[in-house]
């Protein structure tokens, strides 16, 4: 986009896109997204309600699970306005500043999820490797401090993103590739020198996803060593079973991230629909799966759900 005097400028609005090859006014596409949002919101609100009301769930593991559910709600609500506007009402425009705000919140909640999963792996490490000191190590004040630390770290490290984008001129059009705003997507329509954005973006990814995933792997290496030292096979299986829900949540979060990175790096000729679908999987699948995983795999959560269900039937 160029102004009348030939200098590049920032457009007042940006145009969002749907899924390439699929008309945005197709009813079944809108229905799928509505179902995904419904599962996300109802499932995570149910987890939060259960942990709040059930005294048996007032334990460190479930406090971290509450953080995860609250963060997943944040991810869903960050994308909801523009996704529903695009697919349900075929309204594709978003203000430039509003796009920067949405970009900031989407990335902040995504990076927070990585930190929360790391905290949950530390919870499992203490529970299995040092069970006698579990309650004294993971006190309520320390859990709160960990949550605030994750929030502060994510907010601080991502705060420069909107300003790094704001300084750039946009001369390659104003059409984005998704129904929401992401930093890499905005870089594709910006012109000028984007080296600072790329370098800082890479630093943020390594400092968050890279460091967090490394410590998660380290935690499970130590957990596995401790479990293999248990003499009873039944006790070993029981200990590993307490980690199964968290392992599934980690895989649901990191596998799409790795897939997106691999496609972007090694399959540059991939059709646009592949990039869009994988980005949607990355943002929509983990918030939807996490409450399902913990409801199915965690006995206390199942009991709480059944208890509420029986009360509603009485």
UniProtKB/TrEMBL annotation:
It is found in: Cell membrane; Membrane. Its main location: membrane. It holds the Pfam family 7tm_4. Residues 43-294 form the G-protein coupled receptors family 1 profile domain. It is a multi-pass membrane protein. GO terms for molecular function: G protein-coupled receptor activity; olfactory receptor activity. SUPFAM superfamilies: Family A G protein-coupled receptor-like (SSF81321). GO terms for biological process: cellular response to lipid. This is Olfactory receptor. It comes from Prolemur simus (Greater bamboo lemur). The gene is OR51I1.
